[in-house]
Design goal:
The protein is 46% helix and 14% strand. It is α/β, with parallel strands linked by helices. The protein is globular, with a radius of gyration of 26 Å. The model has no long low-confidence stretch (mean pLDDT 86). The structure holds one RNA strand.
RNA sequence: GGACAGGUGGGUGAGCGGUUAAAGCCAACAGACUGUAAAUCUGUCCCUCCUUGCGAGGUACGAAGGUUCGAAUCCUUCCCUGUCCA
């Protein structure tokens, strides 16, 4: 397949990038690639420990897909070796080495998830243990000799921690070097990552040069804010939307974001053009469009991307019922009354809701009941004891619902 | 190797012998208000038990011991972190 004209490719690729270093190098490289019909090798690295991708990752994956759209080759690198270090984000931990088994399992999970976006035909999945593991101590020393401590400490995160006296372990300094070595080993033309990866990506340029290779071009994508609109989306902060989450959950989480954040999501998670998004915003300001309606549209689009259009509609309907009208979800789970929840005098509601999973613990359940947060069959249940119950109880605690079958 | 300063609940961060399950803030959860959110206000925020009470127990302030009627608070040892000196 012939490549598209260089300038056309460039325009397509630049859309939505945070930064491109350097543009003229990419232009040259695209031209050279077209001449010999060699696709560019585009790498992005991923952590082996967190195989659950969320929308934050998809900003990058979508961009990687764009390279594939143009006929280039994407290398999905799983950092199983660098995973021992963990990207130094302030946590001074050496993670326990993962077994080959775990890594393979995670890789499989990745495979299932990333191919919802990437084209498997144009994707290579690699592990950096492939070349980092056989590296001898001598080679590690050589690698280290290529870079200075001062330059490593330029990294934001390091210099900050250094200044405030937080610990920085030596192995953490190795992370950027190892990542740079990956680029050399894979002969990358381009490396991608979030803007927070800029430092590491730049080190790769130096390392490649030192090893006699042409420096990679680096392309960074913006970091997606999480549901709170402030911190970056991450699993550990709990402000994420996982790409394998059920449609209803996805949809509800999207509806949870602020109106302001909605435009950002439109920008980074849909193919809508910037000018279209600006117009949407203007229409809302002018009172021509309802922000909620726009947000539901966003939710539909995202759910449809990872599930299907039907799922998206169903999720929107469910949201309408459950959140806007406060009705019971259509798919409330029904369980039998746990025997531990009944006593001679009746049903112990506190134990019941804890056992059935709508409260965290019996203590928590007691608090919720006293606070009037528990409804049974539509009536607020303030008493810990429920007598004369029969049939099926419809229990609601906040947004959690459960049906409980009572024998007799 | 030496001197000094630290290690508290999901996160910050007070407390430095009892009235402390441990202030304040953030997050979280629930309620009110909203036909999305946000904002705001209120309450809750270790676990178990029951006779549901400003109830009774059990765990908890890096780890293990010790001193005390009583320790997150004092002592000892150990582990971890930082700063300075070598």
């Amino acid at each position: 397949m012939p490549f598209a004209p260089v300038e056309e490719q460039l325009t397509y690729l630049k859309k939505g990038l945070a930064e491109l270093i350097r543009e003229d190098e990419l232009r040259e490289r695209l031209a050279a690639a077209a001449k010999v019909h060699r696709p560019l090798r585009v790498k992005a690295g991923f952590d082996p420990t967190a195989p659950d991708l969320h929308l934050g990752h998809t900003v990058l994956l979508r961009k990687m897909k764009h390279f594939q759209d143009l006929g280039h080759r994407v290398i999905f690198l799983i950092g199983d070796m660098t995973g021992l270090i963990g990207d130094p984000t302030g946590r001074n931990i050496t993670r326990p080495p993962m077994t080959r088994d775990e890594i393979n399992r995670n890789a499989e999970t990745y495979r299932q998830q990333v191919f919802r976006i990437l084209d498997p035909q144009k994707t290579e999945i690699r592990f950096n243990s492939e070349w980092l593991e056989p590296l001898t101590f001598e080679n590690v020393v050589r690698l280290c000799s290529k870079y200075t401590v001062a330059r490593l400490l330029e990294r934001d995160d390091f210099s900050k921690r250094f200044k405030e006296g937080s610990p920085i372990s030596v192995h953490e300094l190795l992370y950027p070097l190892a990542q740079g070595f990956d680029s050399f080993a894979l002969e990358c033309d381009v490396e991608m990552g979030g803007t927070d990866q800029k430092f590491n990506l730049l080190v790769g340029r130096e390392i490649q040069k030192d090893y006699g290779q042409v420096s990679q071009i680096i392309a960074t994508v913006p970091i997606l804010e999480g549901l709170d609109g402030v911190e970056k989306m991450s699993k550990s902060k709990g402000n994420y939307i996982g790409i394998t989450e059920p449609p209803k959950v996805m949809f509800r989480k999207i509806m949870q974001i602020s109106d302001e954040l909605m435009y950002r999501y439109y920008e980074l998670l849909t193919d809508l053009q910037m000018h279209e998004i600006t117009r949407l915003r203007e229409n809302v300001t002018a009172g021509l469009r309802d922000p909620m309606e726009l947000k539901m549209e966003l939710g539909r689009r995202i759910v449809a991307d990872f599930h299907s259009a039907e799922d998206a509609d169903a999720a929107a309907d469910a949201f309408d019922r459950e959140v806007r009208q406060g009705l019971e979800p259509a798919d409330t789970e029904t369980v039998d009354l746990p025997p531990q929840a009944s006593s001679e005098r009746g049903i112990r509601v506190d134990k019941l809701i804890a056992l059935v999973g709508v409260a965290d613990s019996v203590t928590d359940a007691t608090r919720k009941i006293k606070a009037g947060a528990v409804e049974i069959n539509g009536a607020v249940q303030k008493d810990l004891l429920l007598t004369g119950a029969r049939g099926t109880l419809v229990i609601r605690v906040g947004k959690k619902w459960k049906r409980v079958r009572v024998a007799g």
